[in-house]
C-alpha cells in the first residue's frame, strides 16, 4: 500500500462518487509493480484478495475501464491500459457544452467553452516558445501549406488539427501533445454552440503568422502570435469585439 493510502482522508481519489471497491483496486494498482499493458489477476483471484463478491469486483473493473485505467481484451483478460489523456475528452466536451448560464436579458455566457479556450491558449502560449527556433525549413513550409488549406471549408478543420500536431510533433513531452489533441477535439466538438462567423481568412492568416514566428528565434513573438490566434474565438464567445491584448508571460517550461 502506498504511504498514507490506508487513511481515507489521504487516499488518492479518482472521483468523488467512485465505487469504494474501484477506489481500493485503484490504490492497489498504484502501489503494485504492474506496468501499462500488464495483465491483472482474474476476477476470482481479485475477489479473494480484496475479500469482495465477484460481482463487486466486476463492477469495480467496469468503473476503472470507463476511466481508462483498465482495458478488457476479449478472450485474453483484463490489462492495465496504456496511459492516455484521451479518456478525459467526453467529460471536457460535456462540461463545455452544458456549462452555460444566461443573464436577465437572456444573453448566454458560454462559461465552459470560454474556460477551455483560455486553458488551451495558456498551454499553447507556453509550449510554442519551446519549439521556436527548433523548427526546420521543411516543417515551416508544411505548416504554411496546412494554413493555406484553412481557406477551404471542407479542409479547414482537418488542416487546423494537423497544424497543431505538427507544431509540437518533435516535443519530448507526450502528455502535452495528448492534451493539446484532446483540447482541440473537445473545442471542435463543442464549437457548434458558437455563433456562426466567417473567420476562415483570419484563421489562415493567424496560422501563417505562427508558422513564421516558430521558424524564427523570438519566443515572445511566437507566444503573442499564438495568443492572438484565439482572439476570434474569444470574441465569438463574448459576443462583442474583444481586444486580443498581450499574451501572458508564462515560463517556457510551465
From TrEMBL:
UniProt entry keywords in alphabetical sequence: DNA-binding, Transcription, Transcription regulation
GO molecular-function terms, A-Z: DNA binding; DNA-binding transcription factor activity
Ranges in coiled-coil conformation: none
CDD domains to which the protein is assigned, alphabetical: WHTH_GntR (cd07377)
Protein name per the record: FadR family transcriptional regulator
Domain (HTH gntR-type): residue spans on this chain: 15-83
Superkingdom of this protein's organism: Bacteria
Amino acid at each position: 500500500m502506498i504511504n498514507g493510502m490506508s487513511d481515507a482522508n489521504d487516499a488518492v481519489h479518482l472521483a468523488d462518487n467512485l465505487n469504494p471497491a474501484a477506489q481500493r483496486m485503484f490504490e492497489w494498482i498504484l502501489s503494485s509493480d504492474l506496468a501499462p499493458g500488464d495483465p491483472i489477476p482474474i476476477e476470482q483471484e481479485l475477489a479473494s484478495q480484496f475479500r469482495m463478491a465477484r460481482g463487486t469486483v466486476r463492477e469495480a473493473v467496469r468503473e476503472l475501464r470507463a476511466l481508462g485505467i483498465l482495458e478488457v481484451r476479449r478472450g485474453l483478460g483484463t490489462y492495465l491500459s496504456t496511459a492516455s489523456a484521451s479518456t478525459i475528452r467526453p467529460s471536457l466536451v460535456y462540461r463545455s457544452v452544458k456549462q452555460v448560464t444566461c443573464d436577465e436579458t437572456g444573453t448566454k455566457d458560454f462559461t465552459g467553452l470560454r474556460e477551455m479556450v483560455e486553458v488551451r491558449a495558456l498551454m499553447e502560449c507556453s509550449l510554442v516558445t519551446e519549439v521556436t527556433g527548433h523548427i526546420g525549413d521543411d516543417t515551416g513550409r508544411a505548416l504554411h501549406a496546412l494554413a493555406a488549406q484553412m481557406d477551404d471549408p471542407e479542409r479547414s478543420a482537418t488542416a487546423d488539427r494537423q497544424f497543431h500536431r505538427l507544431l509540437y510533433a518533435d516535443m519530448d513531452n507526450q502528455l502535452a501533445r495528448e492534451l493539446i489533441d484532446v483540447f482541440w477535439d473537445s473545442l471542435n466538438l463543442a464549437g457548434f454552440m458558437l455563433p456562426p462567423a466567417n473567420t476562415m481568412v483570419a484563421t489562415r492568416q493567424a496560422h501563417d503568422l505562427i508558422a513564421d514566428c516558430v521558424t524564427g528565434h523570438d519566443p515572445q513573438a511566437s507566444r503573442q502570435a499564438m495568443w492572438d490566434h484565439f482572439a476570434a474565438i474569444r470574441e465569438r464567445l463574448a459576443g462583442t469585439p474583444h481586444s486580443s491584448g498581450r499574451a501572458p508571460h508564462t515560463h517556457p517550461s510551465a
